[in-house]
Amino acid sequence: VAARRKSIRTLEWTGVGQPHGRSNRAPAPIPVGLRRNVVDLDRYPVQVVNWHDLETSPDLRIGADAFNGAVCGGIRRETIALGSPGEIEDEAQQAMAKMDGKSLILSTGCVVPIVAPDGNLRAVRSAIKHT
Description:
By secondary structure, the protein is an alpha/beta fold. It has six helices and three strands. Strands 1-2-3 form a three-stranded parallel β-sheet. The longest helix has 15 residues, at about 85-100. Mean pLDDT is about 80; it is low at about 1-5 and about 25-35.
C-alpha cells in the first residue's frame, strides 16, 4: 500500500518508513514521488534516485535540489516509446536546461519500454551530444 500525504504523519514516517527504507537487509523502494520523502532524500545511502518526474511531483530540479547525488529522469515513457525523435530531443533539452549543471542521468523515470524504437534511443544520445 502506497503512503499518501493525508494518510501518514511525519512521526509515523520517521518511525516506520524511513528506517525500513535505509535498512541494509531489505531495502524498501524509495517512493520519491511522494512530497513527504523529498525532504529526506539526502538521508538515503544511494547515489541516484529516479521517479516519473514528468508525470508526478516533484519537478526534476526540485528533486535534485533535495538530493546530493544524481537524479534520473527527464523523458516520459510514452515519449520514448511512441514519440518522434524531435519530441524526445525537446524533452531532453528541457530536462538538461532545468538542471543547470546538476548531475542528471537522462532517461525515463522508470524502465524504458521494450517497444521503444532504436531511433528514439539514439535521439536521447543525440540530444546529449549536442549540448
